[in-house]
Amino acid sequence: MCASFCGGTRISTTRGRVRVEKLRIGDEALTMSAGPLPIRWIGQRIYGRAFARMNPDSIPVKIRAGAVDDGIPSRDLCVSPLHNAFIDGALIPVAQLVNGTSVVTCDDMDPIAYYHIELPVHAVVLAEDMPAESYIDRGDRAMYLTGASQQPSRLQQSKSWAHCAPIVASGPLVDRVRARIAWRAGITPRDIMERPQNGPLFGKLEWADHRVISGWAWLPDHPTVPVVLEVVDQGEVIAVAVADHFRSDLRRDGIGDGHHAFHVELPRPLDPQHAHRLVVRRAADGMALAGCPHDLPANRPSSALADLDLAALIEHADPAEKRWVLDWLEQQAIKLHALLTNPAEPHEPPPPSPKTLPHTLDRRPRRMKLPKVLTSGSAGG
After folding, report:
1. Do residues 165 and 31 lie in contact, with contact meaning Cβ atoms separated by under 8 Å?
2. Could you report the per-residue pLDDT of 131-152, keeping only the tens digit for each?
3. Helix (H, G, I), strand (E, B) or coil at 168
């Protein structure tokens, strides 16, 4: 999901700032290095919130007004996470700039409408006055809806085009840009980042769950300088923190003046349905703290069923209710078996064999609903 602007984004053109959904083929977009260039193709794709949550690369990133520089962007800008912003002479995926404060994920947007504008060459356009790349075909053009008059089949394939600037997803340049954005957001005071962060690093990741991460970090060569840390999940920075909280136990143990703890409340809780590998590292060079990586396994839906003591749940039900629950479970087993043996037609399970089913199922079908002992808040119904 590259070079995608969310609906409502204003693109600078020769006829002024125009909302991306109002652009037309032939409109001339203002570019950073090539002057006005005509738009030759516009694509669109719409996602529902539920789909996006299962596909993180579809969840938009919001760059708040003024996050990068004064007036850049001039309004909140929402783009796809793999969209490259043009900063300091390089194209940087905006997902690498997320800090939970001034650059955040928009997992509450529903629906998500993405628009893609293609020019004769790959170029940097102005979206809410923020320099960002135009669309380049990486083999995904067929995914997007287009106007009937655009005739995408006649468009030159972009795969042989050169990118208008180098794409940089990590390294010192990205670290500097991320630190500068953090300063502007007040996450890390400028004087901290200007003070030394080098030398041996002591510390530990002591606690991590889907919402909170905490521990301590200390530089013995610079005992009063707080350590600037990044929280990384599966290689992606999800939060930035400064280890400057006071803990009396640290001072008692000779860890500087005790102001070396950190406590991070994640701006967006981690999805418990997916596995996570968390690392807390020094932002200056990526050195990880002791206790890293910390793995959070996925909570599979089946685990909740494994912990369910159904017998205890219906212990106080009358015999008729217990028999009804047993019949219902047997019918669910038939349907699940059908899904496993014939996944192409999950809604038409094969007829049960009379030899394998108890007599309680050999009767006229009736409308299935959960008995009250399974839907009430207590075992007694």
Report:
1. no
2. 999 998 776 676 666 553 454 4
3. coil
